[in-house]
């Protein structure tokens, strides 16, 4: 059934205006963004197909490549969806960043999911924190295959001194999806921890981010 075939009060846009966005299902909200379906697939079916990519959280991490499996989704709709999801991701990240402190690994993992999970290439980032675990800045310092030879401790130390931070959280993503740390990840963590200790900066954690999941090396006892 197409939107035009529904009673006026059951159409997603009218329903949203009358009852608020919270009254709509995920499928209905996506249908408003998409507006129309395509030949052989109405807008609700198209919305349902998008949600099979990992639900709303999966769409928040979407990249252009994510939509390759969705037949009939044209460039204009792809661009609109990516723009909306990016705005939502930025709004959530802004809200998290304004918290007084990242008191738990869960809060840090949530923030890093928004920042790194959608990237198709491997990125090494550092969260620079003050003595109260408040975020001073986040920087993506290195990209590509991450090893002890491609992540330079000297650069991390210099950026830590620049921000005058008391602690850092290390982070990188695994575009493959697995968040299990490798031996190279563990060696890199301990190397950076030793280097930063020389300037009295603590390493609070090393978070590995995958699509829809993250791992805290501190929680795993690997620090």
Question: What are its keywords?
Answer:
single chain; 223 residues; alpha+beta; DNA polymerase, domain 1; 42% helix; elongated; hydrolase; protease; zinc; MPN; RadC_JAB
Task: Describe the protein's architecture and organization.
Helices cover 42% and strands 16% of the residues. It has a five-stranded mixed sheet, with helices on both faces. The mean pLDDT is 84. The longest helix has 23 residues, at 75-97. The protein is built from eight helices and five strands; from the N terminus they run ααααααββαβαββ. It folds into two domains: 3-94, Orthogonal Bundle (DNA polymerase, domain 1), CATH 1.10.150; 101-216, 3-Layer(aba) Sandwich (Cytidine Deaminase, domain 2).
Quick structural gist:
The protein is α+β, with helices and mostly antiparallel strands and 223 residues long.
């Amino acid at each position: 059934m197409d939107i035009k075939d529904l009673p006026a009060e059951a159409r997603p846009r009218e329903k949203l205006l009358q009852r608020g966005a919270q009254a709509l299902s995920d499928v209905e909200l996506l249908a408003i963004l998409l507006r129309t379906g395509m030949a052989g697939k109405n807008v609700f079916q198209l919305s349902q197909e998008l949600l099979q990519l990992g639900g709303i959280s999966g769409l928040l991490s979407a990249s252009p490549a994510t939509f390759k499996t969705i037949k009939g989704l044209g460039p204009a709709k792809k661009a609109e969806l990516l723009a909306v999801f990016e705005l939502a991701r930025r709004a959530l990240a802004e809200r998290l960043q304004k918290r007084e402190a990242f008191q738990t690994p869960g809060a840090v993992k949530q923030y890093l999911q928004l920042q790194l999970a959608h990237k198709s290439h491997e990125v090494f980032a550092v969260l620079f924190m003050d003595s109260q675990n408040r975020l001073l800045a986040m920087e993506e310092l290195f990209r590509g295959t991450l090893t002890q030879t491609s992540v330079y401790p000297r650069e991390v130390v210099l950026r830590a001194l620049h921000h005058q931070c008391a602690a850092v959280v290390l982070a990188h993503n695994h575009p493959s999806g697995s968040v299990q740390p490798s031996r190279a990840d563990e060696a890199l963590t301990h190397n950076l921890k030793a280097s930063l200790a020389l300037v009295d900066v603590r390493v609070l954690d090393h978070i590995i981010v995958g699509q829809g999941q993250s791992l805290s090396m501190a929680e795993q006892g690997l620090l």
